[in-house]
Design goal:
Blueprint (H helix, E strand, L loop, with lengths): L1 H35 L3 H14 L4 H16 L4 H14 L4 H16 L3 H14 L5 H15 L3 H14 L4 H16 L4 H15 L6 H13 L14 H16 L25 H9 L12 H14 L3 H17 L6 H13 L3 H14 L2 H15 L3 H9 L6 H18 L2 H14 L4 H14 L3 H11 L6 H13 L3 H20 L4 H25 L2 H14 L6 H11 L3 H14 L4 H13 L3 H14 L4 H15 L1
Helix pairs in contact: 1-2, 1-3, 2-3, 3-4, 3-5, 4-5, 5-6, 5-7, 6-7, 7-8, 8-9, 9-10, 10-11, 13-15, 14-15, 15-16, 16-17, 16-18, 18-19, 18-20, 19-20, 20-21, 20-22, 21-22, 21-24, 22-23, 24-25, 25-26, 26-27, 26-28, 28-29, 29-30, 30-31, 30-32, 31-32
Length: about 650
Amino acid sequence: MKYVNCMLIAALVLVSLGQMGCLSGSALNSADQMVEAKDYRGALEAYQSIVDTNPGTEDARKAQLAIGKLNIERMNQPAKGVQSYEAIIAAAPESDEAAEAHYRLGMHNFREEKYDEAATHFDTIVNQYPHLETSHDAQLMLAKSYEEGQKFEQAVEVFDNFANRNPQSKRAAQALENKARIQRQHLQDETEAKRTLQFMVKKYGRLDDAQSQIEKAKAELTELNAEIPKPENPEDTQIGRAMIRQQERRERDRPRNVERSPAVKSRAVMADSGFGVSAEEVMRSFGGDTTIATDDQGTYYDAELMIAKFFYDDENYRDAGALYFDAIARAEAEKAKLNPHAYLRLSICYRKLGMHQKAAAVLKKASSKDSKVIDAVISTGENQYTNEEYEKALETFNSVVGLNRNKDAEVYWYIGKTYQMLGEPEKERDAFERSVAMNPEDTDALQSLAEVLHYRLHDRKAAIIFQDLVEQKRDSFITMKTLGDICYKYDQFNKAQIKYKAAARIAERLLNSADSAAEKQTLTHQYGLGTILAVVSLHKYGKEEDAQTLLEVLSTKYPDHTLLPYAKGEIALLKGEEDAAVAAFKEAIEMNPKSNVPVLALGDYYVSKGYNDEAVSLWEKFLEHNSNNAEVLRRLRSIKESTAE
């Protein structure tokens, strides 16, 4: 009897839940009708009632989406609309409604010309919701956001990602058309534009739906006096030939009644790979109607890995990625050890489709299980570098950045050497600086940085400093401060405070033996600056008590030091007290009008807030009496050039 009562109660609960679903669905329809009737207040109340009475449900989230749209598009209350979308994301970040909220926030920011904020939302959709059709639209909007925000290189990359994600489709050809347009019009790189157009004709020339794009590409190539390649015959590609061989093998085996055994189902629970195609579909397309199997020496995932390599070499990263994902899951379920390159290629497939978060997660997970994974990746990059495959090498090295701190200095050095071969000195310098920041004692990185500064960027003054460091000439304030600046620039705050303290100690030692008043003044200024920079670095490193103790030592030794107000300003900025920071910087400028330190700090603050005119005025006024100050001149020139653009 008790069993019957339980069944009745369960049935009643199910009926009640069904009725509630019907009621909330009906309420949504009623609210929608109010919107159509332009009864916006009434609609808002109706939607809010659904949210309040059905918390945490899909209908509640749909109602919140409607509230957001109504506030932004009809009620002219964008702040409330944004708040509604953000509430969905916070409450149910993995839901389809959260993806839609991200998309609407992206579109809202795009229309408001806040392109960086828009890009953040679109990128989140691409990486966290790749299984949704919305993610494809979001990826196109991500590219457009970068383009409108004048981040043209990123826009080119994303259009390329989209094409990789939608192989053999009209949308891929359209994306490549946009990529070539940006390369030609905005990046002024006709060579790369030609390559893109030629690849487009070669890859999609036989695709009926893409003929309008192909004709435009041919016309542009003619205009550029470039060769127009013949459309690629699928049978001429490596993957095409492999598919033909597989088909012939099937036909050869059939008369002998040898049939390929069906694929063994994996014991792993297959998650959505994000590639938009299943491994089963890819295998079926490769093997025809009969599923591919292996011989007695292999496993199903071995076959997947073999075929994945065909697709990978053919630059079909979507299908290759789906196979690598499935093969790795099967192998891990059987506790089999895979070649580390399988993880690297899966990561690259994700990166080629624009899913950089998934790309990083793959290698992070693999390296946590097997430390040799990172070594294998670096070795692959070295081989690609040696073979002059520089773009591939860059991709390989970048894939392991941040996975092992002990390896990052080495990886960034390789990245710098690769940019050197590509003829991009600014990126070369950035990579070598990062290498130095990770390991300030690495003479190879210091030497490489000195060379790019001297030979390619013609900054011989800075090059001499790093050459001195290579030669172990570290007993000067400027060398230690320069190392500290590099470490601070790339968030290596503990290393930075060590170098700044060393700089301060050098200045203090020289101060104790100085004779002239001018020399003593300079060294006192240096000692204070090194100490204050160490204080700021300690604050950034989370050691506020140590920072305060160090500042008190400076205040006790030199209570009238002209940089003490500057120190207060930097600390105030770290605490978010902007008005106090500005006042302190101005006080420091009044105390020592010849010091560029507070002038640079205040000007940089103005620039960070978008007050470019104030920064220009400040720096020009300083240069009236300090016309040869190189750092201020450099900053002023930079801000004027960016404003002119």
